[in-house]
Design a protein that fits this description.
single chain; Nudix_hydrolase; alpha/beta; 19% helix; globular; Nucleoside Triphosphate Pyrophosphohydrolase
Length: 171
């Protein structure tokens, strides 16, 4: 693909996964190449989730991905709370992402990430349950922009009726 070629569109489902202490589970990835909004190829934090398989709905893909990435199966999905569409350049394979984000509340903080690295096309650094105040003040890159603020609103009981539109950093 040349730099003038359009990016492939990828439909993706992700989850804002909260534990009973209202911490948000995020995955840290190594940025494998620089992008205009990340010239130093810094690591970034992202929600669990991934691409839809043929014939899958966003909800089905989200449930499958949560099973594959964090070992949580048969999870009850809450509403779609956000979306983010546009070019995402930090993964090894850049894409024109069409992401949909669902609310998930787990009964405890037990997850199994033993298979996470084998399901990803980018190097996984690790996972962390983030306290929201700490996440909001941390000097780390969290994608998409505004995710920490959205998570804080949800925890306060302000679950969006219409999905919130988020954007990639630098987009």
């Amino acid at each position: 693909m040349t730099s003038d070629s359009p990016l492939a569109i990828r439909h993706i489902a992700r989850a804002l996964v909260f534990d009973p202490a209202d911490r948000l589970l995020l995955i840290e990835y190594k940025a494998v190449r620089p992008a205009p909004s990340n010239p130093d190829s810094k690591n970034f934090w992202f929600m669990p989730g991934g691409g839809l398989e043929p014939g899958e709905s966003h909800e089905e893909a989200c449930r499958r991905e949560l099973g594959e990435e964090i070992g949580v199966h048969d999870v009850a999905l809450g509403p779609q709370v956000a979306l983010c569409d546009g070019p995402f350049l930090l993964f090894d394979k850049s894409r024109d992402a069409r992401e949909r984000y669902f609310l998930v509340r787990l009964p405890d903080d037990r997850v199994d990430t033993s298979r996470l690295a084998e399901t990803e096309d980018n190097p996984v650094v690790g996972t962390r349950w983030w306290p929201l105040d700490e996440l909001a003040s941390a000097e780390v890159r969290v994608e998409p922009a505004g995710l920490a603020d959205l998570a804080r609103r949800i925890v306060r009981g302000e679950v969006p009726i219409t999905p919130t539109v988020l954007h990639w950093h630098g987009a």
